[in-house]
Amino acid sequence: MFAPPVNRAMKVLDRAFFHRTIPTAAARIFKNQDIARCRTELDRTHDALKNRISPVRPDPDDARARKGGKCLLLRPEIVPSDRTTWSTKLQELEQSGTIGVIPYPLHLDYDYFTYQEITAAIIPPPEKANDDELPTGFTQTGHVAHLNLRERYLPYKHLIGEVLVDKTPLITTVINKLDDVGSDNAYRTFQYEVLHGPDDMNVTVNEQGCTFKFDFATVYWNTRLHTEHERLCSLFNAGDAVCDVMAGVGPFAIPAGKKRCFVYANDLNPESHKYLVDNIKTNKVGHFVRPFSTDGRDFIRSATADLLTTAHSVSIFPKPQKRPASAPRPTSPPKPLTTLVQPRIFAHYIMNLPASALTFLPSFIGLYSHIPDLPASQIRKLFAPHTDVQLPMIHVHCFSTKSDDNVAETKSICAEISRQLGYEITPETKDVLVHDVRDVAPKKRMFCASFRLPEEVAFREV
What we know:
With 462 residues, the protein is an alpha/beta fold. Helix content is 23%, strand content 23%. The strands form five sheets. It has a seven-stranded mixed beta sheet with strand order 13-12-11-16-17-19-18, with helices on both faces. The chain is elongated. It starts with 19 loop residues before the first strand and ends with a helix. The mean pLDDT is 92.
């Protein structure tokens, strides 16, 4: 009864077509002070209409409506002229003169119907039960909605885009991805076509209390990874040193900087580096986050060596207090609450390049055995038992197959880590965690393998 009219031949969106009038019943409430009580009682007896529209409506009589008259929509089974369809409570309210049960023509238009309802009324249903369902899922990045349309829906792609803009707040541009993001594209960008709206890919995204601005067409960003960004950042403590090897525009690095971590953030894509620099300024984390743009394998070694030999500290001052204009200015500078000293060892390395990040792991072999002007024996002293310094945690993202328990996938990922490092890492190894991040495809999942860099690997003579 509440579904929109169907038009499978529609090629250009006709919003006026989606209009229908439903003959329903309503309880005319004679005194507005009785509206709340009547609604409560008729909700309790399931007489009131349960729908996403408000059941309290203006009286259908224009004269009554102009005086503020209201009525309450009733469920479709109630017939005004047939009292046998009325509940006992409805009859009691009518007999007491509180309400009158009247016909009510309920008018629905395009604005009432949802994206799913409109597209289902335009696009033919699948021929087979196991065929693709209607494309209801999309990723929102700022004002851009990103679809991955299957071939069956391509003839309707512009209709889909137009309806999606109509029905989704803040969306002004809808795009369809034309190729895969993977190892064939070093920068993880993709080709796209605009389905509706302006070809404007300069977006603003807010995440973890940070603001990110970038051109979605030239850099990598995945809104569906926001929980993974939050999960890893929750592991970092103020004063930690973090090495983000494939930083993108900063979804790990910027929030870590907000937590007062010392971050070395790198991305090979010049466009990503440009927006990373801008986002560092926008979020005022320049004292904590340093941007780089070089090959990730080289960066792992160069950043490690630079951190060992670079002294840096940041003083944390109290927030300035508002003072009356007439108050004298302080004669001495404020004293810092504390001073954070940059560590010499990274506590965490992040490698968010799931298509190939595992192949970067050999860069950790002999990481501390060939630091210029620092013999390995001297570096070992940093990890002496009397210190609280531990070898770093490595967080490497990767793809694997999909199963119900992920046991085989965990073993397979650990086996590949072992092969890359020349050192056995198993699911039972201390500090090893293989975290299931998200579905990527029907038989493909993204994982994050976290493990502590083994001493034998870090100090191996190469």
